[in-house]
Write a structure and sequence with these properties.
Chains A, B: It comes from Domibacillus antri. Chains A, B: Pfam families: LacI (PF00356), Peripla_BP_3 (PF13377). The structure is a homodimer. Chain A has 13 helices and twelve strands. In chain A, about 45% of the residues lie in helices and about 15% in strands. Chain A has three domains: about 5-45, 434 Repressor (Amino-terminal Domain) (Orthogonal Bundle); about 60-155 and about 290-320, Rossmann fold (3-Layer(aba) Sandwich), CATH 3.40.50; about 160-290, Rossmann fold, CATH 3.40.50.2300. By secondary structure, chain A is of the alpha/beta class. The first copy, chain A, has a six-stranded parallel beta sheet with strand order 2-1-3-4-5-11, with helices on one face. The radius of gyration of chain A is 26 Å and the shape is elongated. The interface between A and B is large, with 44 and 44 residues. The structure holds a DNA duplex.
DNA sequence: ATTTAGAATGTAATCGATTACAATCAGGTT
DNA sequence: AACCTGATTGTAATCGATTACATTCTAAAT
């Protein structure tokens, strides 16, 4: 291990000078600088970042807690975070909870032990009071999810308006009997998308029949099963809004298995626009989230927090977008 | 920031004793220990890990370089790595190259600067000499990819035998005219899967016609286009082996767009068994890689390297598996 | 030649832990 | 009482950088 002392000795200067050559070259004479650089190269010196960090009490590392790294939605957000982080000289520590809520909280110790300068949470399923407290002590940004009534800086889309948009699209196609497969209603995300659905229906004076709202859990299987329930109805919906794409896939599959067609017999719209949605058959009409931008915005926000810059606001709502593909069609089955 | 000194003062002992209470409690008297613990709790003391790491010259962190984090194949391997890492008290630094070869190499500095104790490479596209040199100086494990003729510890499946297995499966179904859509042939992975294909054909005395081997680049679009080439032949293949699932999806789509059916008119087999292969229509027959196990094995291997344990061998070949779904069927179109 | 300001460099404290070594203590032996 | 041993605890060096402050140099001004 070659340290700054070795370089200093070799170049016949003090360690202070070596340090200055590295961090503030303008403060040292050209000639000395050359000498030092030469020694650095000859010894292949690499500063020990741990020592630097200890001295400066900063790590140039941020922690990202992800509920499930194998979910492309999150990995795309993560990529956005990484992109900005690396460009600003930060490294990204990954905390993958593997869909286990208990593990999410454990990662917080990384911050407490000063091994990261800040944290981005892509999940808010742990105790909200814990998160709130934590945000008081450390730079923290919420992305994708949010906590109701909290002032923690948050980046996300407006899930209510997104869901409303999806529903109104179906309505604009002439559908009146519309079913919804919701996400789990114990998380804000699930509730918000249902809320958007209800708002759209109300705005157009359409009734929301309880039998046409089924609670899923964001999985393919739940989408499949809930659609089966709809199809068992004496008077099934002509269109279905699934709160995410996986459930929409399951729903479409259920329709096909019943020897019916999407979109001819039933229109289906999803939410998220994941990778496979365009490859799926029929290509899925859905609401697209700006995943990469959510990531970059969250990271930029965190950087401001770390640098104690003034925040102009703490809720950043990004634009979602309706992606029209081929799983929805005008209602040709008027009551 | 409360440090060990504050605790020492409060408990009326030296910092050495506090340190011992934390790391070797058996070396300090019960009574003192209690006093110290009390102070620790009252002050909510958290040891500064940076300082500890600096002193011990270890970081309890490993770096994983991923070519593309949004690819579920890699994120599953990553999850395996994380799983073992966290259970052994290690943290995972993520280096996502975003499919940019140049960025892969940049992450190596993290190691040089002693910010990680070891590294797992899920890609070997940078200069092999660079990797070889690096492996001399730092604990390094290759996962998924490998370098020909290298002694670097490697965890992967046997791509040649996997490809052979896929091809022989088609042959066992009575197919004789079999096409292959390869991966890029400038990477070992691509070459190996082609090699396996050729071996299987040779073993069964089947000719490999040049027009029936098309080079793709692992993307959906390339699969689509190469299949189009096959279909334009006067005598197209009755079965096609695509070197990964994405290309297989594209290939199937091409067949459908030509108003033919998979598997009735053409059988298609893929490689990797990614998430959507089972949802795809028809559900894709493919070779499944034990992604999670690749990750766990790689991490365990790296741990051994870090602890300087003896390695019994340096090539770990895990078992792949043929997953029979519905995209392949017996040849009903004998020449 | 002397003074002086500003540039360049060096000295040593510091960040917060760990740990080799030294010092002290408690209790048992003689 | 004097001595010894092993258990406990304390002192201070150490890890490798950064940086406040002190010192020395340089060159221009007087």
């Amino acid at each position: 291990m070659v340290s700054i002392k070795d370089v200093a000795k070799k170049a016949n200067v003090s360690t202070a000078t070596v340090s200055r050559v590295i961090s503030r070259p303008e403060a040292v004479k050209e000639e000395t600088s050359m000498k030092v650089m030469k020694a650095i190269h000859e010894l292949k010196y690499q500063p020990n970042v741990l020592a630097r960090q200890l001295r400066k009490l900063e790590t140039k590392t941020i922690l990202v807690i992800v509920p499930d790294i194998t979910n492309t939605f999150f990995s795309k957000v993560l990529r956005g975070i990484e992109y900005v982080a690396v460009s600003k000289g930060y490294k990204v520590l990954l905390g993958d909870a593997g869909n286990d809520v208990a593990r999410e909280g454990e990662f917080l110790n990384v911050l407490r032990q000063k091994q990261a300068d800040g944290i981005v949470l892509l999940t808010a399923r742990m105790e909200t009071s814990l998160i709130e407290e934590f945000a008081l002590d450390y730079p923290l940004v919420l992305a994708c999810e949010y906590i109701e009534g909290s002032t923690i800086p948050t980046v996300s889309i407006d899930n209510i308006s997104g869901a409303r948009k999806a529903t109104e699209y179906l309505i604009s196609l002439g559908h009146k009997k519309i079913g919804m497969i919701t996400g789990p209603l114990n998380v804000v995300l699930g509730r918000d998308r249902l809320k958007g659905f209800s708002q759209a229906m109300a705005r157009h004076d359409l009734p929301v029949e309880p039998s046409l709202v089924q609670e899923g859990n964001f999985t393919y299987d739940s989408g499949y099963n809930m659609m089966l329930k709809f199809l068992a109805l004496s008077n099934p919906p002509t269109a279905v809004f699934a709160a995410n794409d996986e459930m929409a896939f399951g729903a479409v599959k259920a329709v096909k298995d019943r020897r019916m067609r999407v979109p001819e017999d039933i229109s289906v719209i999803g939410f998220d626009d994941i990778e496979f949605s365009s490859i799926f058959e029929p290509p899925l009409t859905t609401i697209s989230q700006p995943t990469f931008e959510i990531g970059t915005t969250a990271m930029e926000l965190l950087l401001k927090l770390i640098n104690e810059d003034e925040l102009t606001r703490n809720q950043y709502i990004l634009e979602d977008k309706l992606i029209e593909r081929q799983s929805c069609v005008s209602n040709n089955n008027p009551l």
